[in-house]
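TICKET: design request
STATUS: open
ATTACHED STRUCTURE:
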């Protein structure tokens, strides 16, 4: 009897990928695996998931322990290694991301700004209002996901209009669906979009020179090691392993 660690299939058709993972889990269980750990870098259907406690199950999905790993330690390292933090400001592109953005700003002692979206009708943003000062600073837009990139593009234009010297977007999951690549390439205000590789981005990075990747495989590998050895995974909530 052995511990079995399964990596979820690469994103494509979400339903097929999830079913492939479930079939592999079933096969391992049938083969008498002592313990099965599923590694899911980007969980399907979880865009609005909220999880405050370190091992609390995602409501409605699991009855087993779930460790929700965070990209924050890796993104903090990237900011400190690639940007001049003395001339930067963290920006949330909407009110829903305030908690995420302020957590990053507090950890590296940076100022914080917020973009408030005003909607003329559901699903349509009529105006973006900046709350905070970004003049002559590198504005770092922090978000959980870049899908069509419409919000990021509008936010970047708003920041440039208010005097930001540069705008960089930093996101956890780079989905880049629909016209995302076209939107990013056509936005002069947005210099770079930095995303972790929870979703394979090689092809899209080649198509768009503005896309950069942060490798989070060391975090996943360390989580697997700690789980296998019965060690606490909580360490990874605030620390990024050295590659």
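STATUS: resolved
RESOLUTION: sequence designed for all positions
ATTACHED SEQUENCE:
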């Amino acid at each position: 009897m052995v511990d079995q660690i399964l990596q979820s299939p690469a994103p494509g058709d979400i339903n097929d990928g999830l079913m492939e993972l479930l079939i592999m889990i079933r096969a391992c269980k049938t083969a008498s695996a002592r313990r099965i750990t599923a590694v899911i870098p980007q969980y399907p259907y979880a865009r609005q998931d909220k999880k405050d406690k370190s091992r609390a199950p995602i409501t409605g999905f699991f009855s087993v322990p779930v460790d929700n790993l965070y990209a924050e330690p890796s993104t903090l390292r990237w900011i400190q290694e690639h940007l001049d933090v003395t001339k930067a400001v963290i920006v949330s592109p909407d009110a829903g991301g305030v908690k995420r953005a302020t957590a990053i700003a507090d950890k590296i002692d940076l100022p914080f700004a917020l973009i408030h979206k005003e909607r003329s009708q559901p699903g349509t943003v009529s105006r973006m209002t900046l709350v905070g000062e970004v003049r002559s600073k590198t504005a770092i837009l922090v978000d959980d996901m870049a899908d069509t990139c419409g919000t990021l593009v509008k936010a970047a234009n708003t920041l440039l209009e208010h005097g930001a010297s540069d705008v960089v977007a930093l996101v956890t999951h780079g989905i880049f669906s629909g016209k995302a690549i076209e939107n990013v390439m056509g936005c002069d205000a947005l210099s770079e979009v930095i995303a972790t590789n929870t979703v394979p981005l090689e092809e899209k990075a080649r198509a768009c020179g503005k896309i950069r990747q942060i490798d989070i495989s060391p975090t996943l590998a360390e989580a697997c090691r700690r789980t296998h050895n019965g060690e606490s995974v909580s360490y990874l909530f605030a620390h990024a392993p050295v590659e």
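CLOSING REMARK: Residues 14-30 form the longest helix (17 residues). The first strand starts at residue 3 and ends at 7.
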